[in-house]
Amino acid sequence: MTWILFWKIVLVFALTVFAVMAVFVTVLGARDIKKLLTALRHLEDDSAED
Amino acid sequence: MPPEVVEALSRTNFTWIDTVIIVAYLGASLFIGLAVKKYVRNMTTYIGAGRKVGVWLGVATMLGTEMGLITVMYSAQKGFTGGFAAFHIALIAGVVTLLIGLSGFIVVPLRRLRVLTIPEFYELRFDRKTRVLGGIMLAFGGILNMGLFLKVGSIFIVGVTGLSNTGWALPSVMVGLLVLVLVYTTLGGMISVILTDYVQFVVLSVGLLVATSLAIVQLGWSDIFATVQEVMGETGFNPVAKGSGFGWSYMVWMIITAGLVSCAVWPTSVARALAMESTAAVKRQYCWSSVSFTIRFLIPVFWGICALVYILHAPEGADLRVLFFPEGPTGGGGFDNLYAMPVFMARLMPTVLLGIITAGMIAAFMSTHDSYFLCWSSVITQDIIAPLRKKPLSGAGRVRLTRIIIIIIGAYVLYWGLFYQGKDDIWDYMAVSGAIFFTGALAVLIGGLYWKRASSTGAFAALLTGLTALFGLGPVQQLVGLQYQSPGSDEWIQRLTGAQVGLISVALAFAVLITLSLLFPDRTPRTGRVRPSGLYPEYSK
C-alpha cells in the first residue's frame, strides 16, 4: 500500500466516523444535559458530599 | 503590514450576514452560561459539575476543550509545511486515546480516588509539599502556555474577516470575546463550561464537516493529492522520509505529547474525566473521544494542505503565491504562513457558510479559554493557596477566590495577547511551557498510581526535573551551546531538536523518580489510601 492510498483511507474513514459520532453526541448529549441538570437540582448542599 | 498583504487579506466573502450569525451564536452561549449559575453550590459543582456528567456530554466537552483555535491554526500550519505526512500526528493521537479508553490507564484510577485536581492526588499519594509544588508548576506552565492564544486567535479573525490588525477594531473584538468567556466561566464554573462546550461542539462539528467537504469539492480530491506530490514528493506523505521535517524521534515525541499527555495528563482533559459520573463512563468517554482526538489534528492539517493547493494551484490564489512563496514553491522568505488557512477559508467559503465556520472557530477559541481559566484558577485555589493557609477556606470562600483568580488570569491573557511584542517562536514557546508541567507530572502520575515504592522525595524531585524542558527553547539552547552558528552564515544549527530535548526530559524525570524513591523511601507509605468521605471535608462547607 502506498502512503497516498493510506492517507486517503485514513481521511475518509475518520471523517465518516466523526460525522456519525457528531449526530450521536448531538442527540444523546442533549439527553445528558437534561439528566445533569436534574441531578444538580437534587444535589444537597451539605458536607456529606466531598 | 505591507499594503499588498492588506489588499490580499481584504479579499474575503465575509459580510454582515456572517456577523449576525456569529453574534447570535455568542448571545446563545452567554445566555446558557448565565442560566446555569444557580446550580453552583460548592467547589465540587463549581469545578467538577457535581461529577454528574454523562458519556455523550463528556465526549462533547472533551472535543470542545481540546480543539482550540490555536490547535487549529498550529495544525493547519503543519499541513501547509508538511503535507499529508503531518497526518501521523492525528493518527497517533487517536490510537493512544483509544488505548487509554480501553485500558483506563491513569484516568480511571484518578477518577476512582475522587480527586478534583491532579495535585490533589499528589497529596493523597505523597505529601502536601509535593501537592503545592505540583500546583505551582502546573499553574505556571499552563498559564504561560495560554499566553499566546489570543494573539493566534487574532490572526484567524484578521484572515477570515479582513479586519485590520492595526486599528482598534480587532483589539475590541478580542477583548469582547475574552470578556464574554470570563463572564460565563466566572459565574457558572464547570457547569457553564460543559453546557457551552456542548453548543460549541454542535457548531464546531457542522463547521468542520461542511468546510472540509466544500474544500474537497472546490479543489478536487485527486488534485489535492497530486499537488502535494508535485511540490513535496515523498516527504509530503512519508513522515519518516528524510527532509519531511518529522522523523522517528518526532513521532515518539508525538506519542507522548499529542497522545498520552494531551488526553491523560493535561489537566483540562483530566478535569473532564474527573467530572464523569462513573469510571465506566470515563472509559467510554475516552473510547469515543479517540475520534475527536484524531479529528482535532486531522481536519486542520487537511485545511492547511488545501490552503497550500489553493495558493499554488488555483487561479484565484495567484496573488497569494507571491506573498507566501516569493522564491517559488520550495523557497522561503514569504509572509507568515499562519495566515494561509484563514485567508483560504475567507475566499473559498460563501457568505453564511463562512459565518458558520467562523462561529465554529470562535467556539473553539472560547471553549478552550473557559476550560483553561477554570482549570488553572481552581488549581491555584485548591492546591496552592488553600493548603498553604493556616485557617481552612470555606467552600464559598474557595469559589469566590477561584472567580477572582479567573479574572486575574484573563487580564494576563489580555495583556500578553494585545501588548506583548516578544519574538519567541510560537510553537517552541507552546511546547516548552507545556513541558514544564507535563514531563514531571507524567512520571509522578504513573509512578504514584502504579509503583508502590514511589516516594515523596522522588516525586518532588521528578516534578522539578520538568524544568529541564526549558532547554528546548531556542534562546536557551543558544545560551548553553545546544545551538551554534555555522561559520560564515547566520543560520543556527541544533545539536538536539526540541523533540529530542523533550524525550530526554521525560526519561530524566522517570530516572529521578525511580532513583530517589529507592534511595529515600517514605517512612509511612501512603499507597492505596482512598478517602471515603473526603480528604478535606471543609470543601463543601
Mean pLDDT score of chain A: 83
Morphology of chain B: globular
- Ends distance of chain B: 55 Å
List the secondary-structure elements of chain B in sequence, H or E. HHHHHHHHHHHHHHHHHHHHHHEEH
Radius of gyration of chain B: 23 Å
CATH 2nd-level architecture of the largest domain in chain B: Up-down Bundle
Low-confidence region ranges of chain B = 528-541
Low-pLDDT windows of residues of chain A: 46-50
The quaternary organization reads as heterodimer
- CATH topology of the largest domain in chain B: the name is Sodium/glucose cotransporter
Q: What is the β-strand count of chain B? A: 2
Structural shape of chain A? rod-shaped
Chain pair sharing the greatest interface: A-B, 36 and 57 residues
Major beta sheet of chain B, specifics?
A: 2 strands, antiparallel
In CATH, what is the homologous superfamily of the largest domain in chain B?
A: Sodium/glucose cotransporter
What structural category arises from helix and sheet content of chain A? Answer: mainly alpha
What portion of residues of chain A belong to β-strands?
under 5%
What structural class do helix, strand and pairing data of chain B support?
Answer: mainly alpha
